[in-house]
Design a protein that fits this description.
alpha/beta; 36% helix
Length: 208
């Protein structure tokens, strides 16, 4: 399996991640000067959302594109960190859509509105979905726990590897928000009042 020491010896960019605030800040620091589109490969959806929140509270307008759900609709919803686009189509359609000109045009359109677009996939690295997500990002982030070393050399050279330490419990919004309030000098809850629940708007799907 891929390990922190193995990746370092190969000259890869790798960070040890034990789910602390300092670890999340370290990941954010390494990515804040990357391109506008980040591709995150992880089985941990909390990591993608926490990172999106940190980008948002640093002043960026964030869109999280979630490929990990199993619903049958494509929807935009408001979140704590900005907006989230859920692509919950069947796997076969999702892979076709990700590789289409239509999706490329969607990304270009959203880049005019958002400072940071984060594409989150929990699919196996060997899957077509994961490969397409990596290709779409200006930079990729791979969270490692038990990925096979043989699969890693095919990733882009500038990929950031996050070597997960799982002895500790993952961060939660309750842990992250107080830190963000201290460093940004405003109340997260005052700036983000609770909204009345609304039905998510269904997006139009391009004809493929």
């Amino acid at each position: 399996t891929a390990s922190y020491s193995n990746l370092k010896s190969e000259g890869k960019s790798v960070i040890s991640f034990a789910h602390t605030i300092d670890d999340l800040k370290n990941v954010h620091y390494h990515l804040k000067k990357s391109g506008s589109i980040l591709s995150i490969e992880t089985k941990n959806p909390t990591f993608a959302k926490d990172l999106s929140l940190l980008f948002s509270k640093s002043g960026e307008k964030v869109l999280l594109i979630d490929l990990s759900t199993s619903t049958n609709t494509q929807t935009f919803t408001d979140t704590e960190f900005g907006q989230q686009l859920t692509l919950g189509e069947p796997e076969s359609f999702k892979e076709i859509f990700l590789g289409s000109v239509c999706f490329q045009e969607l990304l270009e359109q959203q880049k005019k509105t958002f400072d940071r677009i984060i594409i989150f996939s929990s699919a196996p690295l060997s899957s077509l979905e994961a490969r397409l997500a990596v290709d779409l990002g200006d930079r990729s982030v791979m969270m490692l726990r038990d990925q096979r070393w043989s699969a890693l050399p095919e990733l882009p050279e500038e990929t950031l590897y996050v070597s997960e330490v799982i002895q500790q419990k993952p961060l939660s919004l309750k842990q992250i928000v107080p830190y963000l309030e201290r460093v940004t000098s405003f109340s997260f809850w005052e700036r983000s009042p609770k909204k009345k629940s609304q039905e998510p708007q269904q997006t139009e799907t391009c004809s493929l």
